Amino acid sequence: MVMGDIITGCDVLVVGGGPGGYTAAIRAAQLGKDVILVEKYDLGGVCVYRGCIPSKALIHAANFIYDIKNPGNIGIKGSVEFDLKKIQQWKFEVIKKLRDGISSLCKKYSVQVIKGEAFFESSEKARITAPDGIISTLHFENAIIATGSRPREFPGFTFDSKLVISSNEALSLFKVPEEMVIIGAGYIGMELGTTYAKLGTKVKMIQRSSRVLTRFDPQLVEVVSRKMEKLGMEVYYNSKPEGMRKENGKAIVTISSAEKKTELTADKILVSVGVIPNSERLGLENTKVELEKDGSIKVDEKRRTTDTKIFAVGDVAGAPFVAHKAFREGKVAAEVIAGLPSAFDNRAIPETAFTDPEIASVGLDEESAKESGFEIRTGKFPFRASGSALTLDRTDGFVKVIANKKNGEILGVHIVGANASMLISEASHSIEMAAFLDDLAGTIHPHPTLPEMLAEAAEVALGKAVHL
Q1: Residue 7 pLDDT
Q2: With bands split at pLDDT 50, 70 and 90, how would you rate the model's confidence at 1?
Q3: DSSP 336
Q4: Where does the Pyridine nucleotide-disulphide oxidoreductase dimerisation domain start and stop, copy by copy (predicted)?
Q5: DSSP state of 298
Q6: Which of 37, 208, 285, 343 would give a disulfide with 25, using CB separation of 3.0 to 4.6 Å?
């Protein structure tokens, strides 16, 4: 594409190069479409630069350091020193490899990547503004919006990238804070809070409800809460931040609950109260695209918006705000545009929290299953009864399987414990394939491994447990 006043065109315009965007662009190109991908920053989006990848890299480093310092009863003694600047440098190298990989894939499949911002002038035309200010016009047959989301601010705590920070800045600190106040206790706040607690920060969390991680089964959260206490993390439940002031380079945060007001000191205030879909300043008012109340773009099962020429995927298309949903949505949108009978008809989307221990969940929990009219049976198998968990000295947690009492169909699986994020995929597949308890229990799992617990939990639900 020649930048300037020249008008050009393509089959598919993709706006945003995050997980949903670059996946959609590559898949559409694989299917023979002429694709242009417009990205404001770099390929990879929030996931690669300010989310999934950098957070998991830091979590791994923090866990490594913590495990050396706390080897348990294995009989190993050790001490450790670490350099956060070098850890951040290693993290950046990980990001760079992924970014370069995405760029190579786009080149391989002839996806034309343009750095700039897109603004819809109509349902078939967009204005592209390059970083140097040069503007060009692009006609398209179809467009896919994949502009992601951004951290939400909390009233009275405006982001300044220094004292009041979002997860973006929290993932790029070069010095471990002495004290950190975290507003919000969802999975992002919990992951980062646990990470910095393991690096030596005194972490204080402010949560408006009576427990953390409210999206997950309370029984799972209980296990994580116990570990939080062991790490010295303080949680102020049923509390609300009232405001802050600065004293001697630190912040004094005032919080209130039904009982009293409390002041907390901090070097950093991390605001982690959710995200906002990036649906503004796109010119959607010039199209037939409609928004939901939360600002996300309204889409159908094919990820088509209310404008037949425009699709939306990823965070901008609504919750849950997870990269693996965006990957799937991007493929669906591209395939629909190419004329394939594709749809986002998945039965369940797994969700994870890389806390300590990890939490992973897919499908219905007990409460939602009952609300949906099911009579249920459950099977629960503890890590402490797993030979593999014992050899790893990771015995906190359990696997819980929920099934339809009438026919044994698996409705949900919920895990808290070591490597829960890796165990949940088999559970997701079971639900996607409409598997039954007998299917899971009858599948031979290698021994000794953690996935055996999925089969064991199914056997508990069936009333034929051997190892419990």
Answers
A1: 61
A2: very low
A3: H
A4: 349-458
A5: P
A6: 37
Residue 393 corresponds to which tokens in the numbers above? 């000295």
The answer to whether 157 and 269 have CB atoms below 8 angstroms apart is: yes
Dist. CA 6–CA 222, nearest whole Å = 60
Residue 219 lies inside a defined structural domain of this protein: yes
**Same domain for 281 and 269:** no
Nearest one of 417, 197, 158 to 205, comparing CA atoms: 197
Count of beta carbons in the 10 Å neighbourhood of residue 261? 10
| Number of Cβ atoms within 10 Å of the Cβ of 107 | 11
At position 13, the amino acid (one-letter code) is L
Residue environment code for 386-396, b if the CB has 16+ CB neighbours within 10 A, otherwise e: bebbeeeebbb
Output the average pLDDT for the chain.
94
Sign of CA dihedral 406, 219, 416, 238: positive
**Rounded to an integer, what distance in angstroms lies between the CA atom of residue 82 and that of residue 174?**
12
pLDDT average, residue stretch 382-388: 97
Q: Which two tokens stand for residue 64?
A: 């490594």
Counting the structural domains of the chain, the total is 3
User: Any catalytic annotation for residue 447?
Assistant: yes
Minimal CA–CA distance to 147: which of 339, 331, 321? Answer: 321
CATH of the domain at 406: 3.30.390.30
Distance CA 316, CA 311 (A): 11
Same domain as 374, residue 235: no
Catalytic residue among 60, 429, 445, 447: 447
- Residues 43, 133 share a domain: yes
Distance CA 456, CA 452 (A): 6
The model scores a pTM over 0.85:
yes
